[in-house]
Amino acid sequence: MIEFLAKRFATIPLVALGVVTILFIIFKSVPGDEAAFVAGATATQVEIEAVRVQLGLDRPLLEQYAKHVSGLVTGDFGYSTTFRGNPLPHILDRLPATLALATAAILLTIVVGIPAGVLAAAYRNRMPDYLISLSVVGLLAIPNFWLGMILIAWLSVGAGLLPSFGDTGPASLVIPTIALAARLIALLARMTRGVVIEELRKDYVRTARAKGLSKGLALRRHVLRNVMIPTVTVIGLQAGYLLGGSVVIERLFAWPGIGDLLLTAVSVRDYTLVQAIVLIFVVAFLVINIAVEVIYRFVNPRLRYA
Amino acid sequence: MPEAIVRRRRRGARRVNLFLWVGATLLVGFVALAVLGESIAPYDPNAQDLFAMLEAPSEAHLLGTDNVGRDILSRLIVGTRFTLSIALASVFLAGIGGVALGAIAGYFGGLIDRVVTGIIDLLLTVPNIVLAIALASVAGASATGLTIAITASFVPPLARLVRGRVIELREEDFVAAAITVGMSHTRILLRHILPNAATVVIIELSLNAGQAVLIGSALGFLGLGVQPPAPEWGTMLGASREYLTLAPHLVAAPGVAISLLVLAFNAFGDGLRDVFDPASRN
């Protein structure tokens, strides 16, 4: 396991370097004078030239690239106009808020998605199944930010139950979490339903039923162990949605995470900050996928010897 | 064949057609709205009426009016064109790009394959909406920028799918036969391999179209998409945020429109998948 982890973690810097290179090429090809932009609209030509030399923008592109990469290795993410310096500490400040939102969404997905899927499978082709399957189709079509707006109108403004924006304690996490998790809940419920229906047909369930176990007990004792696998699959496949969706949700709810910061960076064209945050998202994506593989091996022993 | 199985099969077949038909019908409706646009809208979508601001739905304005008194129904009808054309254009372009890259990498293998796969794998690690936001910031906030951004986020997964399918097909006997009779690579790819990969691509693209609507409207909502006063649905939702309590109908209408369009594409894609690829059900 340690060898496996070491191998997977060793790939992170390689992938990160590749992504950094692609981002560097994309953002260097943006038309416009970077130095003039950093110096500000009122800067004189002399000031612009001073900024150009200071930030090394007068050097050849290859040299700038080398400096950019070596800076990243030492934790220097470059000059962000928003923070007037290295943006890394500010990004790390905001990271916990995003992680809290993503973790809460995963937990809610598991708590709601699995029971919904099992229920639909147990009542296959009857009322509960139709209701759940219909909700799944609906939830997959609704934009998460619109769901968030409806929940604000309903729970926050209408009923006055929950705060609608900002971070003012655990209660303010509730609505953003539901809005972000809705799509994942639908996907997990759908996949769990499929797995449970398939498992219920298998011989071991027939054996359990033959020796006198009730349908409910057979489900709980034997079938439920197998729903861990689709759970992990959904989270692994949707890691990108989880991270990307959090950007939109954070903006809607003024949630102080890095997704909200990314949008601020885009609106003021702080490309250093944009690249830094995209890189953090990529690393987060890779870490989630490694975690998913580890859990796979844990819940499915067959994979351990593969 | 036992009666129960026959009955179950029949029920399955009916469900398939239902999905496909619901999706197709809705899509035809949306296309009609997009084409007819201004000619069937009851009002000019950008005409302001300062004596009828934030009015609730009534006989004169079936879906009410917005904060400067524009008729929401008219804006939704005319806005169909933006949302639908961005989704269809990005899916079409992503289809061309993804198929070309995937086919070349999968068919020729070797160094080309390794380079293309490497780049695809890198891009797949960037969450698609994050990639779209970063690209929208470079390409500019407009319908074109939005289309480029969404297209770019669809190409890598599609290229990977096509590559896998092409590698499978390359080993088939009919390809060996085509090589033996001296057919050119281009001809083999275009005439023999790609037609066999078409089903997976079409299914994937119709499901992508639903995603494109969601991403496009999210970017519009964030102010990175089509700019106001154009009545793009996501942009309309972004502008209606402040009126959530004052005039909920402002928020309701565009959201329902987006959901219905996504639902149409999803149902159509799921229906197609059930018809052409029954093994992948569930």
Report on the structure:
- The complex is a heterodimer of chains A (306) and B (282).
- With 306 residues, chain A is an all-alpha fold.
- Helices cover 75% and strands 0% of the residues of chain A.
- The mean pLDDT of chain A is 87.
- Chain B has one domain (3-281): MetI-like (MetI-like fold).
- The relative contact order of chain B is 0.15.
- The model of chain B has no long low-confidence stretch (mean pLDDT 85).
- The chains are: A mainly alpha (306), B mainly alpha (282).
Question: Keywords for this structure?
Answer:
heterodimer; A: mainly alpha; 75% helix; B: mainly alpha; 9 helices; 74% helix
Total tally of structural domains of chain B = 1
CATH architecture of chain B: Orthogonal Bundle
Mean pLDDT of chain A: 87
* N- and C-termini, Cα separation of chain B: 24 Å
Major beta sheet summary of chain A:
none
CATH class of chain B: Mainly Alpha
State the low-pLDDT regions of chain A, or none. Answer: none
| Distance between the amino and carboxyl termini of chain A | 12 Å
* Overall geometric form of chain A: elongated
Structural class of chain B: mainly alpha
| Category by helix and strand content of chain A | mainly alpha
Q: How many DSSP H or I helices of chain A? A: 14
| Oligomerization status of the protein chains | heterodimer
The CATH homologous superfamily name of chain B equals MetI-like
Helices and strands, with pairings:
The complex is a heterodimer of chains A (306) and B (282).
Chain A: H1 2-28, H2 34-39, H3 45-54, H4 61-73, H5 88-122, H6 127-141, H7 144-158, H8 174-200, H9 203-210, H10 215-223, H11 228-237, H12 239-252, H13 258-267, H14 271-299
Helix pairs in contact in A: 1-14, 5-6, 5-8, 5-12, 6-8, 7-8, 7-12, 8-11, 8-12, 9-10, 11-12, 11-14, 12-13, 13-14
Chain B: H1 3-36, H2 72-108, H3 110-124, H4 128-139, H5 143-170, H6 173-180, H7 185-221, H8 233-240, H9 248-276
